[in-house]
Amino acid sequence: MGKFLVRRLVNYLVLIFLATSFAYLLAASTLNPRVNYEQLQPKPSQESIEMRLDALNLNDKTPLAQRYGTWLAGVAQADLGRTVEDKSVNEAVARKAGVTLRLIVLGTIIGCTTGVAIGAYSAVRQYKAFDKSATAAAFFVLAIPTVVIAVALQVLAAWFNRATGTQFLQYGGEYTANLDAGFWGMLLDRMQHGLLPTATLAIALFAAFSRYQRNMMLDVLNADFVRTAMAKGLTRRRALIKHALRTALIPTVTYFTFTFGILLAGTTFTEKIYGWKGMGAWVVDSIVRNDVHAVAAVSLFMAVCVMAASFLSDILYAWLDPRVRVS
Amino acid sequence: MTSTDTRTGTQTPVRENRGENTPVLEVSDLFVTFPGAAKAPDVQAVRGVGYELRSGEVLGIVGESGSGKSVSSLATMGLLPPHAEISGSVRLHGEELLGLGDQAMARKRGKAISMVFQDPLSGLTPVYTVGDQIAETVQVHNQALSKGDAAKRAVELLELVGIPNAAQRYRAFPHEFSGGMRQRVMIAIAIANDPDVIICDEPTTALDVTIQAQVLEVLKTAQRETGAAIVMITHDLGVVAGFVDRVLVMYAGRAVEVGDVDDVYYRTRMPYTMGLLGAVPRLDLEERTPLVPIKGNPPSLTALPPGCPYAPRCPLVKDACTESEPALYQVGASTHAAACIRAGEIEENAWTAADIYPLPELPEDAEAAVPRAEREVVLEVNDLIKHHPLMKGAVFKRRVGTVYAVDGITFDIRERETLGLVGESGCGKSSTLMEILSLQAPQRGTVVVLGKQAGGMNARQRFAVRRDLQVVFQDPMSSLDPRMPVFEIIAEPLRTHGHSAPSVRSRVNELLTVVGLEPAHAARYPQEFSGGQRQRIGIARALALDPKLLVLDEPVSALDVSIQAGVINLLEQLKVELGLSYLFVAHDLSVIRHIADRVAVMYLGKIVEIGDVESIYATPAHPYTQALLSAIPVPDPEKERARTHILLEGDLPSPANPPSGCSFRTRCPKFTILDPAEQEACLTTEPGLEPVAGDDQAAACHYAEARVVV
Q1: A-chain residues within 8 Å CB-CB of B107?
Q2: Domain tally, chain A
Q3: For residue A16, what pLDDT band results from cuts at 50, 70 and 90?
Q4: ipTM value of the model?
Q5: Closest B-chain CA to A232
Q6: For position A128, which CATH number holds?
Q7: How remote is the C-alpha of B636 from its chain's centroid?
Q8: What is the pLDDT of residues A218-259, one digit of tens each?
Q9: Taking the domains of chain B in order of start, what are their residue ranges?
């Protein structure tokens, strides 16, 4: 089992390297940082622009392969390079990664668990009122892009705040700047800010997971082993939770890997719309600013996240399914 | 609705006086209806079943698929889906179970009344260890018990059902166990809390015969240990004969005959039971008479006609039969009852199945007299092997072993001859078939079909040989294209081989008549036919091109007994009329005895014994053949009770890792009684097929010795 995981880990490292390299090459060949300097008022001299670009390893007159080599050598020493404004990319990543991770982790946990719970219960109540309304809700959400969900939630929150005459639901930034309210006050403030963006991600995940879990659950609902469990003396409810749901969770874990990429895309919009200064918002800004190294760094971060999710689901899969463990 | 409790002629329930003890389980007037969804009609799966079960008694419930035997026991256990409508009464120790809530019922299930299901492969939760699943049963009824004590009890139970190294095997997952071992685990779960009643729903149907014998032995042990009463649901009349005290025969959701096993088998009073008993091919009877075919199919449970549900298929039907449904009336012994208005007549005239059922006349084969040696060889297989490489790795595949699926087998089939190829699952009989049908050069050895060597032919010649070599598959449900009408299915081989359109039409009609179907039904689709009819369509398709050699891969194993008899009779008749040769693959040795002229017994990719049917069944010489024949229960209660079965230890070894020397030595009962010097040969040398006593019998055993086992 350990050998299996190590092998998977090596695979993932290769994939991360490839994904990041492609992202760098794409960014370096399409983005044009030179424009940033040429548009400055007053326009700097040609030599200083060249010098500046050379110093940042962004000069399009240097062959792409050479720039890539320099960048790669830096990355090998854990240096992701400098931004177009000549600031450390590493520092920016350190600051922004946490913001995105908080959002993703919370959104994923809430979205997956409610999705799995509602999906499983829908299967048990197939074609009953609960199932029908859960199905309708899931398809409604699946038909809407995350952007629209985010904006719609903002509108609803604004209406709610107006109606109640409070500022309970916050939808700008991650926290109130310069707030001094002690630990609990700060926590409450962060939760007020975090509620809507987390909900945006969770709602989209819930829709996908509830459908998938419902189907998986329906497959095992009439399985012989559930009947065996009941014949042993378990109540239907216990047999369904302990034997049916436990088995039906296995394929869902694999599904998690597939949805994770979509989730990251959703995070980009959510951060942008709710004014969170995370990796998602940063990549959008970086493309506008022709910031090659920032784009490459975000791609690296995304690749690491996706692979971490895959690795996690490998471990979960092996933990849930003994049949994989042995071989 | 007619009341259908066990009743005498005077409409008082038959009270069976077997000691003073009151019944443990009393089922009366049980009705189960599945309401049809949307506009579909309701399905009346069980229509008034009643029986009593006393402590320590074994009741057999017999019937074909769809007769309601499983549904009635699931209703007893409270395991039917909530939408099923159940009425009547199920009393356990006098306490009514129907109408109890899930909570209350859960306290009974697994404690006072437990169940063993048919398919052990899917019956255990794949993600928990077998030990934990047994311990869960113990703990759920005894919350005070600590985890450690429950585990200890689980190990005891595993030992009781004969799992070696129980303490280690406790931590095994179900997929690491073979089918037979999983069924042992299911039995351990069923007896974990010393239940008063164990319901066994076809507990051995999914298992091979040698494993079936082991599991039946475990069930007997379980009964001895718990003293529980057992309800044994099965379609196998042999299992019933040896195992049960009383029998209840079900047809179309009702009990049609009930009584002591000897009464029901020897003094049968209901034509359906008579038909069933006559339809089973017998392992123990030498003379070959046609099987009793029951015409037609079981009725649909959605729209039952008035009167006796068996009337449309009954040879004794008269007008009164279609007027009202007969109740169970006492016939003969006080405990024997049958639901037939002519039961009295049957008793007076002492009719047997052969008297009332019109037996088909099997044509005499005039050419059977020609000695075998003088007949043409249609198939010759010489030292055939089929080895599958075992690969590992996703990107860089490497060979880590070999599965010896077929490992050097030799046989031939002459004109107008049937060779039965028998063996348990995984012995390589299907692989042999596929190798022959592929007409490709084998990995080693030769296959010669009708004088043409496989592998040495070009595409044209292969095409021509396929005309003479046709196949009938096992599962008639999946081997016919559901989107093609029957006419197209049968016409396809004809068109492929360039028959003209008018000749195709007349040939298809002719074929349908030959296999006993209506040419008028040619426009229908396969799903409109029953299993037996579909297998007839499969046979018609195989016969379309007038083949000389027909390869049959378990052609009747998916069919019910009464239907199977008709198909076997048809195959026998066709063989004589059309001068066919059959290669008949089956796991059921009774069917082989009935239909085959010669038989080859396979074990782990090798033929261990081959010869003419009479010699092999009368005096098998290889210990495996002896065990195989001995393991099959005979549908004759007295005979079956008198027999001792040779029990084989353990399971079939993996064909990827066969034992050295003789591949059967790991399970061989003979090997264990040899002295070490004699064992040496078994351990080191692979025995070849050597002729034994008879003129046409050879066994691959160093110490072959003919022995009577049936």
Answers
A1: 233
A2: 1
A3: very high
A4: 0.83
A5: B110
A6: 1.10.3720.10
A7: 17
A8: 999 989 999 999 999 999 999 999 999 999 999 998 888 878
A9: 118-194, 617-710
